[in-house]
Amino acid sequence: xxxxxxxxxxxxxxxxxxxxxxxxxxxxxxxxxxxxxxxxxxxxxxxxxxxxxxxxxxxxxxxxxxxxxxxxxxxxxxxxxxxxxxxxxxxxxxxxxxxxxxxxxxxxxxxxxxxxxxxxxxxxxxxxxxxxxxxxxxxxxxxxxxxxxxxxxxxxxxxxxxxxxxxxxxxxxxxxxxxxxxxxxxxxxxxxxxxxxxxxxxxxxxxxxxxxxxxxxxxxxxxxxxxxxxxxxxxxxxxxxxxxxxxxxxxxxxxxxxxxxxxxxxxxxxxxxxxxxxxxxxxxxxxxxxxxxxxxxxxxxxxxxxxxxxxxxxxxxxxxxxxxxxxxxxxxxxxxxxxxxxxxxxxxxxxxxxxxxxxxxxxxxxxxxxxxxxxxxxxxxxxxxxxxxxxxxx
Length: 394
Fold this sequence. Notes:
With 394 residues, the protein is an alpha/beta fold. It is 39% helix and 14% strand. Strands 1-7-6-5-4-2-3 form a 7-stranded mixed beta sheet, sandwiched between helices. Strands 8-9-12-11-10 form a 5-stranded mixed beta sheet, covered by helices on one side. The chain is globular.
């Protein structure tokens, strides 16, 4: 008897969630650009609203193009279900709000995207949900932060922008002891490089604006996990309204077909340019888990398939030196995003973490001279040449 073989990642990225249209034979998924779906009878409508038939009713609830994108992501992450949203922050906020109540406690990595810090520190605190921020690399600190009312662990790995790693398997062990869920922002790694759900995490989150869509032309978010956790998020999405537009879902479907190919190039560029920067005399330090000098390189090799296209580095100098360097680049574009085909560069202190006060940035290890580089899929030598001429201006 032939054993059924699990499909490869690239095959899944191209084919999962989609099929040729049975009526027209069209290979590309159609865009169901409609807000409402019609019925031939009241009973048919009632059966759809009561979810007996699985028919779409209203695009804020569900839409066929959106559903195809959700199925593709769930298969890429190796799980049952997925909910997509109008942005990464819509996915993060809906997922967290769905899992906590007033009086609950969250343990979170200190190194986080600035919008997530705002959500945890200020918005949720207004509703009686407290968060303790911990060092991502310190399991003792993570474990000591747990309280009787801890319901959730929120982790970024690798973290933004200092590329620290969380030992996800150990966090899962701690969470299970306390009956808590583990949410992981997997944006930097993507399911190609890391699959937290296979390590026992509860829900994986993405700013799909980044690598999943991959072309800097769509804003989207995603939460993937078991149906028992994702279905309530979809219901909450109806209420909060952070639904993804069908055209944006189609762009994301198109982008994900090349995810494996793009990630191979992102990984290659990230490694080559990290090694170049590490050897440059004007660079103080490089943050990239693919470097053997990274303090968690061994964990990265265990937990990740590849190390991604994002790195950060500190210039020798101050904020003015960093600004002069960034402003001198010609190929790399100044932009507060990552994960696209174009190489983007930014200073966290002036972009993603601008609204954190200096003390908060200091605690998170974000120096004024820190620069984040998101390598696109250009030729690495061209990026290095651009960096070299900018170094000459500093």
